[in-house]
Specification:
alpha/beta; TIM Barrel; 11 helices; 23% strand
């Protein structure tokens, strides 16, 4: 049994919306999972890290990424692009559908085959060390209840977006949402204007008829503030995404944060990038959206961390990306960047600044540290004792 101890933690942000800040300074890891959280933990360990008073967060999750095949990003003609996300502290990647594969199939058998291939690839492949949850089938007319049962049995936990295929109306897509809930396959739905050739604009009325589980990039354009409010209020079980794509509108994001605060429903908030779209690749995108929501919308940094990690983990039933006993030890050790006037990670987020990540860990193993981390250098450094 391998044991790792992280001690001398200054601030411990859990990613758990029920208890966002933990009164602890140590994390004990056994065989890649969190075994104990507390103060002054003493244990015989294979490895000990001194966090040097820095902040520890869960590894973040990008809740909305259009992966393709393996590490190829055809829209940007890139390879190994997910590596940069992992080295920035984004240790989880949720596929929103493999839409950028050239000449991708659009019939029921084809989309199921593509989802199957993607899921099976990412079961084994971890680009840059990140966990990619692929196989998000695009909802198209012709898919059956048996297909959704098959997806569940394969281990696929969600669909891609309604609106990227032709199942966009309640009479066809609505029953797919019901099948998804029956078999534990979460349904995602595009909102607003079309961002991709061939995709469909999704109005509030159409979305209400579909009753999806996740409202994608809800402040990204095309819906009115009144539409956003209608969706949040009339689909009370649905999660809501704020994504970096199209630079989420401050007006819409402020209205959404106000509404979620009034309803005491920040547990519904998830953060992503919608990359690699035509807008580009965003390795820091989740951090940047967290900063925007804190600096421009008054969101508390510890709640922003939950939105960028544990809320998404809860949505998809993941036992990771939250600092909780028994969960995978996917962690970031970070600080204000060198030269910053901010005194902490929380202050950075309040200012809208991406923190300096000094160490990224997945399943208790370091995947990036120091110069290999893909942010500005942190003011302090982790010391291996």
């Amino acid at each position: 049994m391998s044991k790792t101890l992280i001690k001398n933690i200054g601030t411990l942000l859990s990613g758990d919306i029920e208890c966002p800040v933990l009164d602890a300074d140590s994390i004990l890891i056994e065989d890649g999972r969190i075994a104990e959280i507390g103060k002054g933990i003493q244990a015989e360990c294979d490895t000990v890290y001194d966090a040097n008073g820095m902040t520890v967060t869960p590894g973040l999750i990008d809740c909305h990424v259009h992966v393709s095949i393996s590490e190829w990003g055809p829209r940007q003609s890139t390879m190994h692009w997910i590596d940069a996300y992992a080295a920035s502290g984004i240790t989880g990647i949720i596929s929103a559908g493999e839409t950028h594969v050239p000449s991708r199939p659009t019939d029921a058998a084809g989309v199921k085959a593509l989802a199957t291939v993607s899921h099976k690839i990412y079961e084994k492949l971890r680009p840059g060390g990140a966990k990619v949850y692929g196989g998000a089938i695009i909802p198209v007319i012709g898919l059956t209840e048996q297909d959704f049962q098959d997806l569940h049995e394969m281990g696929i936990m969600h669909t891609g977006e309604f609106g990227l295929g032709n199942a966009i109306n309640p009479e066809d897509g609505g029953k797919m949402s019901e099948w998804g809930r029956k078999y534990g396959v979460r349904t995602m739905c595009h909102t607003g204007v079309s961002f991709l050739a061939g995709s469909k604009s999704m109005t509030a009325e159409r979305i209400l008829g579909l009753k999806p589980d996740v409202l994608c990039h809800i402040s990204g354009g095309g819906l009115s503030v009144e539409d956003v409010q209608k969706l949040v209020e009339q689909l009370p079980e649905a999660m809501v995404e704020v994504c970096a794509v199209n630079k989420p509108g401050t007006k819409f994001s402020q209205a959404l944060m106000k509404l979620l605060r009034e309803r005491n429903e920040f547990c519904r908030l998830m953060l992503g990038t919608d990359s690699p779209s035509g807008y580009g690749i965003f390795p820091h995108g989740v951090w940047e959206v967290m900063g925007m929501l804190c600096a421009m919308c008054g969101l508390e940094p510890e709640i922003a961390v939950c939105a960028g990690s544990g809320n998404t983990a809860n949505c998809y039933g993941l036992k990771s990306n939250m600092i909780r006993v028994g969960y995978a030890a996917d962690l970031n050790v970070c600080d204000a960047p060198k030269g910053s006037q901010c005194g902490s990670v929380c202050e950075c987020l309040r200012e809208g600044t991406v923190p300096g990540v000094d160490l990224v860990m997945v399943d208790g193993k370091v995947i990036a540290s120091g110069k290999t981390a893909n942010t500005a250098p942190a003011r302090r450094s982790v010391r291996k004792v």
